[in-house]
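User: Could you check the structure of this?
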Amino acid sequence: MKRSLKNKVISIGIDVGTVNGAISIVDEDLNVLLLSKIPTYQTLVKSKRNKSKLNKETMKFEKDYRKRNWTDFKKLGEMLKPFIGQEIVYTIEKVASRPGEGETASFLNGNSLGIFEGLYSLINPVAFYEPTPPVWKKEMGVTSDKSTSISLSEDIFQIKLRDFLRTGKVDDIAEALLLSFYGLRKYKENEGN
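Assistant: Sure, the predicted structure tokens are below.
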């Protein structure tokens, strides 16, 4: 029995990151339904580390500000809204702190991971996978060299990633696509399809 388009399984893949995160949504026929960087916005936050500095124009001591990126839940919700209620396979890259990575970077990556784990209740997937980078990359046959992820994702989905992201690095959207594929393949293995 063939399923209607409405009842097709779709797979969401998340390459976790505060600035460089990406999301992909594909259907079981490997059609790319959505491929994008994670929407974010920036705010200015007072820096706690730096002492106040003299602004020579105003002759007042002022605190330095730094930019902070936040996930834009409103835009993310708008992106996901058309897919809610469908049979969804949800795959998130399970990131962890890396040797030599600072505390702030580790905390922000963990925060980003928590955001996407929290989306589980909104999405209500039929299957959920959370592989670590070494696990899914080994299974997919890619290495830590990002060009292998780019080549494989373009081969599997028969697309050019530059069609989806005109500027910037495309390795994040490539890995999000591969995570979608990984989840879909795991789901089909487990369901016997």
